[in-house]
Amino acid sequence: MLIAQDLVKLFPGVRALDGASLRIEPGSVHALLGENGAGKSTLIKILTGVYRPDGGTLSVGGVEVHLDSPQAASRAGVGVVHQERNLVPEFSIGENIVLQRLPAKGGLLDRAAIRAEAKRCLDLLDLDLDPDRRVRGLPVSQLQLIEVAKALSMDSSVLLLDEPTTASTPSEVERLFEVIRKLRDNGTAVLFVSHKLEEVYELCDTVTVLRDGVSVLESTPLADLAKQDLISAMVGRAHSAVDLPARPAVTAEPVLELSAVSTAAGHRDISLSLRPGEILGLYGLVGAGRSELAKAVLGLSAITAGELRVRGKAVNIKDVRDALRGHRIGYVPEDRKEEGLFLDQPVTKNIAVAVWDRLRTRIGGVSAKSERALAETYVERLGIRLSSTDKLVGELSGGNQQKVSLAKWLAAETEILIIDEPTVGIDVRTKAAFHELIWQLATDGLAVLLITSDLVEMVTLADRIVVMRDFHVCGEVVNDHEYEPTSHRVMGLIHQDAE
Amino acid sequence: MITLDARLRSNETTLAVVAVVGYTALVVTSGGSLLSGSAIETFFAYLAVPVLIGLAQLVALAVGQMNLSVGALGGFVACAGGVAMAQHGVPVWLAVPGALALGAFVGVLNGLLVVLTRINGFIVTLATMTILTGLQYELVGTTTVSDYSPVLRDLGRAAIFHIPVVFLVALAAAVVLAVFLRRAVPGRHLLASGGNPLAARLSGISNNRSIVVAHALSGLLIGVAAVVTLASAPGVNQSIGGDWLLASFAAPIIGGVALSGGAVSVSGTVLAAVIIRLVDVARAQFSLNPSWVNFVVGAVVLGTVVLTHRRGAA
Questions:
Q1: In this structure, which of A210, A287, B12, B93 has its CB flanked by the most CB atoms within 10 Å?
Q2: Which residues of A touch B195 (CB under 8 A)?
Q3: CATH no. for residue A211?
Q4: Of A177, A205, A235, which marks where a domain is finished?
């Protein structure tokens, strides 16, 4: 049995956990739910000894524990299957299972002991795998079951599974569930972290819901709860939304239309349209295929069926360069540091990079003067606070960096802008300023396709919200900017098959 | 179970076949002169250092690092050993362990610098390479040191059934290293850190310790290569080690060692060193331009990397 009481975890500027509690009973499966950013990962990291809590207590089997390392957690009997693959590919299945304490005799590995111990763990799960087989090349589903066996090798009384079904097919999920039920019947306390309510209902006995670092539902029997109750607990009330003035309804012809589009990335039958002056939101859980859809529009993955129309004309966009030059579509990527900006270059160069062709002087160089003039125009328009446009982008705050990556696309005179997760890792005040900026740009006539996992942000900004799930569109919600009803409708669409 | 089929298709089998076919072809085209005792002795005597420095690079690659200081450290240790014996009267029984310890010590320094500064191993060993090259020049200047320990020189020329002792030393080092990486717990930890650092960390393995151990072993093997050079080369001077760096990478890369860490093959590395040696022998036999050897080795390294990359992507 694992009991967490009032856990608090502080990061600079954020209370990631602010009184999270849960109680996992032996012989039961306990669901941990929460929106993106609710604190699930932080809680898991505390339970597995990766983070140390700043407050609260933890006990396993009735004994208070201080888990200050992953080893301490596994010694205390807490096993975990992480989201990331945690196996060594060149090692055998057996060696991976016992990696935490490789048995040795006289300084050399005891192969027989490895095999026996691995076999014991695999047998617990009814897995018929050869412990001597190398891990490289095994299918993902088996890797996951091997990780469960690895977690069991330390005689765990508590097993944490962090979103184990994200990349699995239905039959693999079924196999995993069989294994989990078997463990439950043998008395293991299982914590199951998931985004998928239907899986939670199928597998779990009790549930804890985190929101803003607090347990809003704590260790409640799932049988007492309807899907609607869980959604309400997850989304709660908006308290950080900015009130933006209403925008006039948009009537212009759509600039970007997808009709029945399927892609090589796996999208099926996607239809949506975006008008100038409109913010269209794309909402969905992680893995729903939103960023991948954006990349298909930019020509980064092939459209295999259906039609993509820009300004009414069917087009075939070859690549990002073609999207920008030929169709004036810009993309502000999610990971601005990796994909969007040159951190060790000044603001001027970052803003001008997409239009160097236009700034070219007669002898082929780029005029520093015209670069600066261009940069200054947009720095002023977007309210980027700087001592000089020669400052390196890497030295700017997160909010200003994001503004610079936006300025680059405006300087390139894009008319359609796809913005992916714009405010991840940005503090609340900068976030609000950024929201106003996007709102203003749309009001000035820019067509914005907004991808965000932050439901508050979505309800604040979007005019309409297209909801995606498993690479298809499962519905569209007209946003009346009332947080509660809109968020309920969106979550209802995502979880419509659950019960 | 590893099936016979898998064994036949393995990288090591391919390399062994290439080595045997290549050697046979050279024996035939040389009219059998390559089968004489002295020819065999020469062939293997010049193989000892390539094998040892290949293994030194292999250990660094195993943990996901690189060691650019292979040649500079080898040259420095060889010169230090030679100067100590020839000019300061250090006895050979002290100079040899001293050279090994010096190699391992610099290796530990490399490892500690990587771990403590978090600077990429490439840069750290690039820096130590430059420093060591300077130190080597400081030790010997433009002179060649050759009047040291006759015992060691004799051992360098000794052979058992036409197999030079220095080659047996290299082979013994390979066997010990193979057992260490395959069976010893620190060896497994080292490979786990190289193969998946996150998994290793979550399993209670210290990646930092693995990195230091790998660099220390790399340095120790370079120390062995330096002693072999002291024993078998006509003398040591400022040029020793100058051409070791490419060779140290070529053998493990052709031998199937992953640059990304975690996947090694000691036998593959030894066989690749044999093949590179064969190219050199062919050059001498057909009196080809020496630059062709570098050309061929470079092309083979590039080809191997492209092939492995393709296989990895498929």
A1: A210
A2: 88-91
A3: 3.40.50.300
A4: A235
Q: What is the pLDDT of residue B313?
A: 44
Q: Give pLDDT < 70 ranges for chain B.
A: 1-9, 308-314
User: Model confidence over B228-279: pLDDT tens digits?
Assistant: 999 998 889 999 999 899 889 999 998 888 888 888 999 999 999 998 888 8
* Tokens found for residue B174: 């390979």
Chain B: residues touching A (Cβ < 8 Å): 1, 179, 183-185, 188-189, 191-192, 195-196, 198-205, 262-263
DSSP percent split of chain A into helix, strand, coil, nearest 5: 35, 25, 35
Tell me if B184 and A95 make a contact (CB, 8 A cut-off): no
**Domain enclosing residue A129, as ranges:** 2-235
Residues of A in contact with B262 (CB under 8 A): 88-90
Quote the distance between the C-alpha of residue A499 and its chain's center. Answer: 24
Is residue A336 in a domain?
no
Closest of A249, A244, A253 to residue A415, by C-alpha: A253
Q: Residue B204 is part of which domain span?
A: 38-278
A428 plus A318 within the same structural domain: yes
Q: What is the number of structural domains in chain A?
A: 2
ipTM for the whole complex? 0.83
State whether A177 and A296 are in the same domain: no
> How many separate domains does chain B show?
1
Model's pTM, two decimal places?
0.75
Q: Which of A244, A273, A279, A243 is nearest to A445 (CA)?
A: A279
Alpha-carbon gap: A192 to the closest alpha carbon of chain B (Å): 20
Is-contact A227 A196, C-beta < 8 A? Answer: no
Which residues from chain B sit within 8 angstroms of residue A108, using beta carbons? 179, 183-185
